[in-house]
């Protein structure tokens, strides 16, 4: 008799089914595996964030001015030294990258999440390049191990675009550590296939945020499960209206100059309560320097429809 067989027999001497699947040791091992698989939790905290500073907002007409003899040539040190994706520069007119300062700002937010022990366990982002870059910078500096889940449902209102933008392909966005196994709720081309009015935009963001909030994730129970959602200025405003106990909608008028009211890299922290999400206005430290803060305009964001 081999030594390994002897050990197995001694461990199950009281089991009449030794050597079969019903052996007690096998049942216990199977139950242990099931218990490990069942360790899933709903998100306890959700952070909704606007993308960082965009190149086209700071440098008007940059795609033409920065092109010399067919080569991208930045004319300001706040412009990216090289373009993040190898594609015609015209494609960036509808899908702009972030600036050098924008990358630093996003990294500061990521560092803040690490210091505050709010490291994201799950990260969702809009497919816009500026959102991908922002989410990746936050992920890196927060030391999150999460892969980015690219969700077209988080894209801003299509009426802002003259045509559907050319976004990064799977190969082009691999540099941002995207989870290509993730199945998005919609395709971007479906979003641009028909006109989307403000009511439908409210409903779309509501659907995706509530879906994210209701999705269980693997959890080790050592910390609250934290989800980061990186989108647009309107995403942050809509999230506050949707996740509040007293829900409100965002109107067309509300979207006017919303970027001034919800600056680059603005964040809002939500904490799950028994039957609703509670916004924590000062839950995360802001980034402030001369003539800039990423704090949201409190009176606007926390308004009611009454």
UniProtKB/TrEMBL annotation:
GO molecular function: phosphatase activity
InterPro entries xrefs: His_Pase_superF_clade-1, His_PPase_superfam, Phosphatase_SH3-domain
Pfam families: His_Phos_1
Top-level taxon of the source organism: Eukaryota
PANTHER family reported in the protein's UniProt record: PHOSPHOGLYCERATE MUTASE FAMILY PROTEIN (PTHR16469:SF5), UBIQUITIN-ASSOCIATED AND SH3 DOMAIN-CONTAINING BA-RELATED (PTHR16469)
Identification of the protein by name: Phosphatase
Species, as recorded: Pristionchus fissidentatus
């Amino acid at each position: 008799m081999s030594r390994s067989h002897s050990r197995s027999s001694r461990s199950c001497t009281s089991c009449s089914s030794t050597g079969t699947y019903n052996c007690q040791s096998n049942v216990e091992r199977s139950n242990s595996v099931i218990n490990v698989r069942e360790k899933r939790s709903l998100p306890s905290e959700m952070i909704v964030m606007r993308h960082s500073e965009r190149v086209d907002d700071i440098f008007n007409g940059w795609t033409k001015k920065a092109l010399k003899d067919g080569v991208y040539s930045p004319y300001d040190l706040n412009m990216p030294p090289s373009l993040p994706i190898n594609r015609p520069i015209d494609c960036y007119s509808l899908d702009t990258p972030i600036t050098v300062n924008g990358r630093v700002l996003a990294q500061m937010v990521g560092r803040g999440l690490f210091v505050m022990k709010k490291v994201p366990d799950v990260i969702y982002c809009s497919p816009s390049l500026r959102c991908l870059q922002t989410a990746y910078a936050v992920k890196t500096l927060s030391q999150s191990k999460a892969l980015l889940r690219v969700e077209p449902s988080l894209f801003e209102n299509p009426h802002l675009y003259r045509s559907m933008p050319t976004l990064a392909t799977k190969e082009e966005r691999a540099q941002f550590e995207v989870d290509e196994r993730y199945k998005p709720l919609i395709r971007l081309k479906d979003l641009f296939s028909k006109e989307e009015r403000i009511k439908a935009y409210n409903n779309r963001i509501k659907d995706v945020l509530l879906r994210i909030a209701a999705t269980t994730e693997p959890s080790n129970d050592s910390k609250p499960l934290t989800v980061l959602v990186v989108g647009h200025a309107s995403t942050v405003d809509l999230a506050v209206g949707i996740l509040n106990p007293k829900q409100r909608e965002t109107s067309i008028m509300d979207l006017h100059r919303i970027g001034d009211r919800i600056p680059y890299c603005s964040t809002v922290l939500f904490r799950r309560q028994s039957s609703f999400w509670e916004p924590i206005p000062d839950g995360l430290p802001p980034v402030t320097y001369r003539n800039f803060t990423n704090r949201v305009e409190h009176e606007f964001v926390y308004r009611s429809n009454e």
